[in-house]
Amino acid sequence: MSVPRAAVPAEPRSVPPATTAIDTASLKPLLEPRSVAIVGASTVPGKIGAIPVAMLREYAFPGEVFPVNPKADEVFGYRAVPDIASIPSAIDLAVIAIPAPGVMAALESCADKGAKAAVVFSSGFAEVSEEGRAAQQKLAEFARARGLRIIGPNALGVANIDAGLVASFCPFFKPRFAPGGAVGLVSQSGAFGGYVANLAQDRGLSFTKWITTGNEADVEVADGIAYLAQDPATRVILVYMEGARNGARLVQALEMARAAGKPVVVLKVGRTAVGAEAAASHTASLAGADAVYEAVIAQCGAYRASSIAEWFDLGYAFAFGKAPKNNAIALVTVSGGVGVMMADEAETGGLDTVPLSAAAQDRIREIVPFAGARNPVDVTGQMLGDLAGFEQMVEVVLAEHPFGSIVGFNAGAGHKEENGFRIQKVWETVRARHPDAYIAISGATPPAVQRAYEAAGCLVFTAPDTAVATAARMARLAARLAEAPSPIAAPGAPADIPAHALNEHEALELLKSAGLPAPDVRVAATPEAAARAAEEIGFPVVVKILSPDILHKSDIGGVALNLATAQAVREAAATVLERARAAAPDARLDGVLVAPMMPKGGVETILGVTVDPVFGPMVMFGLGGVLVEVMGDVALRRAPFGLKEARAMIGEIRGAKVLEGVRGTPPADTEALAAALVALSRFAAANADRIESIDVNPFLVFPKGRGAVALDAVIVPAAGRAAS
Amino acid sequence: MSVPRAAVPAEPRSVPPATTAIDTASLKPLLEPRSVAIVGASTVPGKIGAIPVAMLREYAFPGEVFPVNPKADEVFGYRAVPDIASIPSAIDLAVIAIPAPGVMAALESCADKGAKAAVVFSSGFAEVSEEGRAAQQKLAEFARARGLRIIGPNALGVANIDAGLVASFCPFFKPRFAPGGAVGLVSQSGAFGGYVANLAQDRGLSFTKWITTGNEADVEVADGIAYLAQDPATRVILVYMEGARNGARLVQALEMARAAGKPVVVLKVGRTAVGAEAAASHTASLAGADAVYEAVIAQCGAYRASSIAEWFDLGYAFAFGKAPKNNAIALVTVSGGVGVMMADEAETGGLDTVPLSAAAQDRIREIVPFAGARNPVDVTGQMLGDLAGFEQMVEVVLAEHPFGSIVGFNAGAGHKEENGFRIQKVWETVRARHPDAYIAISGATPPAVQRAYEAAGCLVFTAPDTAVATAARMARLAARLAEAPSPIAAPGAPADIPAHALNEHEALELLKSAGLPAPDVRVAATPEAAARAAEEIGFPVVVKILSPDILHKSDIGGVALNLATAQAVREAAATVLERARAAAPDARLDGVLVAPMMPKGGVETILGVTVDPVFGPMVMFGLGGVLVEVMGDVALRRAPFGLKEARAMIGEIRGAKVLEGVRGTPPADTEALAAALVALSRFAAANADRIESIDVNPFLVFPKGRGAVALDAVIVPAAGRAAS
After folding, report:
1. Do B195 and B259 share a structural domain?
2. How buried is A21 (Cβ within 10 angstroms: 0-12 exposed, 13-18 middle, 19+ buried)?
3. Domain hosting residue A689, numbered range
4. Which GO BP terms apply (chains A, B) (predicted)?
């Protein structure tokens, strides 16, 4: 009896990520307008209609500004016009700061004046009622019809710091953000966007563009990401999101950022929310919607942060510092114990605290005899007394190995400005000689000293463990960006999937035709036919009841294993048919399935597909048994994908070691498994609208070189189809 | 055939945690001295010998101060004496700020002057060389001989803020810490202790006592914890440690803090360090030394923080706020999305975002029609315009349910002092009506407003997720403290453990006599004896080769299962003996073991013991198979312990659901399992010096009510004994 081999497809041809890129040019009038009208401009400081006018003045916006206010001649030094029709020239951007009922008419008038973009502050739309939702829908239709891009409604607006544009009533644009920032922000929530502006003020961080999208009648988070991806000033993109309606657009935007080599750091809420609909299949219950976001964000080369602090620290680090070029980290500390803590954090984050050579250790001990010299390097409290020696020690470290990052802990040594600047000068010199390394220091640092560090490209953190953890996260993200995107597999050919519930044989045959390895099985209507089938296949065989209505065959005694003779098959087939009739009198019985008995050994895995309402078909992989059932240890990818992603899925589950072989079992044929995942992803992509879910369980993976095989499968057709 | 039942012992009698408490009275001269001499006092500001004198002046220390300096008449306004002998009256505390070679003589002179405690700043001891280690040992012996308590050497010293005592050269005691602090600090590292003082200055936090222990010739971290446990002013104890030499003392100190109802938050470095010695047994390799600390800290009711930020946030929270009295949390936000983020964090931390009743939700929507009313309560941006309405909403929430905690997110609403104080007043009113709740707000908060919140017992965090995570951690710690300590099991009776390697039968019999359930097995020297033994036990049986030198019996074909007749047993015994002789000609063969064949079903678990060099015998529990092998999913406890701890161990492994029954398997007999863990812990405690490790694998747990049984066991005698 031969084990079926996985039909390993050649790496499927790459297809371009998308043929129609998101139209970022249409966002230029929004973020780079030559002229701005503020409808509902107010002369009263602090009012929603006043803040953007005041801010345009504050930031010395170089274009034309037209406050629309029937009662004032002037608003914050700009000549007011009584109505939109009176604006003397064409406008690019309209800022709408009037109550909801007047918004549509105002937009029409602005469009007539040539406006190509609008920011709608007004609330009272989809966030309050069904009527509001309808009114918002009209705004969306108007935007599409007139080619006008709309931010909002119910949005806090946008800003382009370098261009002097603040089209927002957020109070945190004063004091003025400095030009020359590196961080682009896209926030779905205005309140959160304002909060982040405040965080940035406190941290001395400036934005390139600051975009809040509000109710997203038109412009959504994906548009903002795509715009920032092509914005030369933006070096890192921070995204806050609650959810996306169009997964494909989000994927496209993230891929644009990856293609531009720009890190995207996403804060997505709803980490623990479980999708409301109870999912029919096993796979669906394992792949909650949030897990889908998590998978898609990583698959597109972006990074999902697990806390606000982590998210913002990454923005800070990419703005002022350099991402580590490799995983080797050097740790320089005035406290041995804190060195251990930093090494803990490095190991947790996947960085390697490479020990120094004996020669380098000797050189360090020549400078300070009781220094810890291995890495972490404990320069001891003597450091402050001999900064030249300290500089020499750091140079010994960096000359020893091309460390991608170096993190220092000064404890309190630099807490006074005088000492702080003396230490800072040492690091500035080091930075000049090592322009590509991630350099961060931690400990007590006065604000002025901190600014000097940052100006020199050295990061400053209060806590040493955070400094190391941030290096690890940057390294991970930078590595994803440096890799070419995974070649995307072409979807397979659409299959002829019946609308009715599929039995095991139908499901396996479909998957087999899609390239998944499955055994040579026969359907037999009678015990006699079963015996003939067994003779064709070769003994020993398995006989199983065949019915789309009986999911747990073993439970009703519907499976007979290891049958060695035609007579045994005949008897077994009769028995299982009888038991099925007794146990499930209403079930549709399609006869019995005769399959070759699989050899012992092999690792049981589970492959699955669910169709996510936002991102489409998602492929799931996990190990059979407790790891999936109890620990929920699964990997997910958006379909279709290539072998590289499939290999990554296999490697990223927590139980991956099982496939490498534990306690003397041989390593499993992970290449056959990867090929099957690719084939399943292509099948799922080609049939996204025909299926609801697929479960291949178990998918048995034999030792390396011996292939793999799907032993059972359930395909649930899309709901609309099954009902037909 | 009957399944052996676990011999469930009655809850073993409680024994007092320790008969000799750590002598905290001896630390009073150190932290509450009436007089202080500074040996090596300097008039040069910033010098090590100058700072403590200047600080005693700064803090207006009310006792006598004697700077010892042969060249100065006065040091920072205190009259100097030329040498120790010239000190005019008895002293309590000596601060030694001179080079190492003079330290011993200075200590002797100070002791002659009545000193009962000393702080030794001097470095050059165990941290630099073997000679230094010897000199330090002399200090330790002197301390014991003269009843003098010594901090250091190589220590940054101690401070007692309320008493005006700063016996430290740490530069961060200026500006002056306010009296009336709540946080006691014990840090093994001076550099880290200074860094924490700086963090405290930045956060507006004050210490009760601040203790750094340096090289720990005498006073160690455990002493500091014990002292703070009995210090009335200290409400929370922050501990930084690198390691303990005496585990029993640390346990005793932590238990003193628990008995006093004081939270202890520990930052322990070395999280990822794996013990250097490769451990002989399976269990040892799973229980690295750091995992032992982790387990012991929790077992003693303390909390181990995973980052500096988490650790310090907990100190801040216990200092200014109230620990949640229960797990119900209310979330009040101006941003719906951030409400979801807070709910995520609550769920992750084990808090329950209890939904409001329909009636309460209606009342909230009466105040703001489009408010999110379920919990999280989204008060919307309207809140600032109607603070009375906001207060009503918060009151509706708190009247609805006895929420243990309530966390607000203001985003930027309170960023200006005026608005900030208006919102703060609302929370202050709420706080007055709900004095026991954990109340924290987050968002942009000016420093003056923050101080007002804190004065009212409301915590302020920058990030909303941190505010929720801190509530969850406090709740966990408070719950541990509120519980009575787990009754500690008495150690069992010492057993007669042979010094040679034990075979399976000897090991199982020893454990059986200690109260672990094990099958009724017989040793047989010959096939004929095996057949007779089987007849006594009853069929079916298992026959296994018996040898202390053959660990993996199955691998050499040394196990025969399910033998139903005497003849089958005879043949099997002959075969396994033959195979063993062939496979391991040098092995000591002790015959064969005849055991009843166990019924199918049951969950395979692993119980183990290792003897930790610091904490003594530790009991390990995990599930058989991949969960232990691949995921390292184990629970650890210091032996001996009672049923409560045993139940907690069983519940805390990640795979605990397996024992509750998955996919139709019945729940396992966890009470029998818990009883076995208790019995094993008592055996381990009674025989700590006789064993190196114990492995009970598999320990089979049958369905509820049907007991459990040890199927195999390895006991490795302590190294010194096995060699004898």
Report:
1. yes
2. middle
3. 603-723
4. tricarboxylic acid cycle
